Amino acid sequence: EAQVTQNPRYLITVTGKKLTVTCSQNMNHEYMSWYRQDPGLGLRQIYYSMNVEVTDKGDVPEGYKVSRKEKRNFPLILESPSPNQTSLYFCASSSQGANYGYTFGSGTRLTVV
Amino acid sequence: GDSVTQMEGPVTLSEEAFLTINCTYTATGYPSLFWYVQYPGEGLQLLLKATKADDKGSNKGFEATYRKETTSFHLEKGSVQVSDSAVYFCALSNSGYSTLTFGKGTMLLVSP
Known about the structure:
Chain A has 113 residues and is mainly beta.
């Protein structure tokens, strides 16, 4: 089944403890992206990648890092999480870019205390 | 910059009622327009899209027409079902291949 898989689905952590949210797609898509979803704000893009080793900042990149060493994987790294990063995170991928639509993962609900 | 404005929810309807969710956008050039749907506890799914003016996207009984003169992409369905209860997001893609700009979402609640 074609899908974008995120792990974990739920995570509670403490301020300052580094964490990684994994994202993997099995569709050989070139484009991948991370979004966060917050009440009243909709979805905002954190980072995106157009191919292996090619990444760029979205609208809200502060406090996040990403890497794209393999085509299928696009992990999101929070080196020192803070409570304002408590959010619902979505990874997405596309074969031809946002103009053609993204396939989204099921989401990771992160709580930083 | 680009932006998308949707009507605020929740929109509450009875089964078989007609649905309209308004969406307007601000963008330069000729963006592609999308409606995504998010069912409870799930990720977003692409519902329909339109890539140029006057195009009509349709799927699962939902329709939306790309109106460049009014910069709108309103979502409609003739007869909603309880299973349509979800959050609906209008979005556009304009600046290259990697960026989707979303509206804030509109929750739809359909009662039997």
